[in-house]
Amino acid sequence: MGEHGNGDPKSGAVITAGEGESGKYAIDNPGLPPHRPRLADVDEKAAKRAERQVSVLFILSIIGTVVTFVGYFAIGQTDGDLHLLRLQNTLLGVGTALAMLGIGLGIVHWAKTLMPDHEIVEDRKPLRQEVHREEAQKIVTEVLDESQIARRPLLRNTLIGAALLAPLPAVAFFRDLDRSEDFGVERMRHTLWAPGVRLVRDPTGTPIRAADLTIGSAMHVIPENLREITYHGERLAEKAKSVVLLMRMNPNEFRNTIPGREDWTVDGIIACSKVCTHVGCPVALYERHTHHLLCPCHQSTFDAAENFKVVFGPAGRPLPQLPISVDEEGFLIATSDFTEPVGPTYWERGHTDPEGDYPA
Hints:
The chain is an alpha+beta fold and 360 residues long. Helix content is 33%, strand content 11%. It has two domains: 39-120 and 131-175; 186-350, Rieske Iron-sulfur Protein. The strands form three sheets. A five-stranded antiparallel β-sheet has the order 1-2-3-4-9. Strands 5-6-7-8 form a four-stranded antiparallel β-sheet, with no helix packed on it. The radius of gyration is 34 Å and the shape is elongated. Residues 241-333 form the Rieske domain.
């Protein structure tokens, strides 16, 4: 180590804090900086003014929620009118922004102007096994006193009103995603596919012959009767449920594992729902060599060669398979609807279908 003892802390080579001549190397605790009171701390008029400003922000939040409801319910369905659609979108955007920003800015302004801003140091208390009710109650009381909720009813009432109204548009939006009168779980059980409905290309509507598909190819198809729906919103909803992925593989590579589906394919041509059974994302990536279908959202992987069973990922059940055949003109047709509900699993799908089409 050498004669100077560089490795010995007592050798004098290293001077620690608090040691040396007159302790000049020690660093004293500087403590907390002096507190500078705000204007609202010493002037009640300024505090009242800050209270009114916060309340105005909360009231703006309430107004924003009302504007959102007006845009959503008063205007209603726009039926393709671009002027109404722009007005509705503007009201929804402005209303939602006011509702959220009003509460956020109000709480921030409240904390900066009225709540105590003293810096304190609180010693860590020893861990105890029993909860001290009186101490917890004291802490809650101190929080209420510091927030000044009890002293300032205008703040309390406007905050309660804004907080109660702000979530309502989201509740209405999610509940009212489908405005049709027959909304219900039964709409999820059935699609436009039916015996004799042709498979057509999207968006041209061209029927598909078996000879149009080569081994390894895949295409996005829809039911021909989708074109009969004139209302745009209903057409989109039905298309979302009925969209199908059609592919062709070597018939020798297909291994049917479900009894009763022996005649659901045509010379290696097989069809399935594109709606992932996890959360409903569109399954569109087909790997021709492994016959795997990949959902890009959460990487659920399905094996088309074995009735679209799940081979990887969070999906809990196979993709529904569409039974297909060929009509007299050589075009591909469906022989029935899907024999199980498409899309993500939901609670009601386990119940017995009233028409007896689906197993319980």
